[in-house]
Amino acid sequence: MTRQAFEHHDHHACIRDAVDTAARLSAERGVQFTAIRRRVLELLLAEHRAMGAYDILDALRAEGRGAQPPVAYRALDFLVRQGFAHRIERLNAFAACAHPGVDHSPAFLICRACASVSEARGAPAPEGLNASARAQGFVIERTMVEAEGLCPNCVEGSPA
User: What is the domain count for the chain?
Assistant: First the structure.
């Protein structure tokens, strides 16, 4: 499993563990974790930043893969459906899931200065929200929190 983006950690192990988890879960689920899906996940994990589909396409092209937009969109769709990545609505971008295989509602901490993104592990929708939704006949299928602020590195570097 990956660690939080703002924590000091062995980044190579972080990427390896996340990719290994995705490969294992894909095999258990009987879905194909193709080379391009693996590479897109690695790109998302590379800097703990959210990436747009065209950022991913540019990276794939730079590697000589000659990717067309449907390639990136299909890979991202797979990663999101399998819970290996999340779509961050505010940024219109994608980030690797920090807790693949665990039922959770992601809460994203987005640094407004350096654009790094960390996923805080959240519980499914809070009971108050669930109760309010039920009272209105609404069934919550997914919740997501996106918070913007400054990461520890940017707080340390900002003038007091």
Answer: 1
Residue 4 neighbours by CB distance under 10 Å = 15
Query: Do residues 17 and 2 touch, judged by C-beta distance below 8 A?
Result: yes
Q: What is the pTM of this model?
A: 0.79
pLDDT averaged over every residue in the chain = 85
Write the DSSP symbol of residue 116. B
DSSP string spanning 9-61? --HHHHHHHHHHHHHHHHHHHT----HHHHHHHHHHHHTTB-B-HHHHHHHHH
Does 1 map to a domain? no
- The CATH number of the domain holding residue 77 is 1.10.10.10
